Amino acid sequence: MATTIKTSSKNYFTKIQKYLKNKRIFFTPSLNLGVYALTIFDLSEIETTSLLKKMTKHFHLTKQQEPLALAA
User: Fold this and answer.
1) Which residues of the chain have pLDDT under 50?
2) Is 13:23 a contact under the CB 8 Å cutoff?
């Protein structure tokens, strides 16, 4: 399962990167048209949910879930 965290703030991007590195979580950073993104890999659904809850509280963020693509 892959999870992507997007922000337009370079400051938040750097803070989240450091947070994930400290937690030893594998991710890939990217920048596209002024939007910073971190894609997290190799976490189960339970681990992802737990991580997002902790990060949301830690960084005082809001969560916006994008609709999943329909299977063909």
Assistant:
1) none
2) no
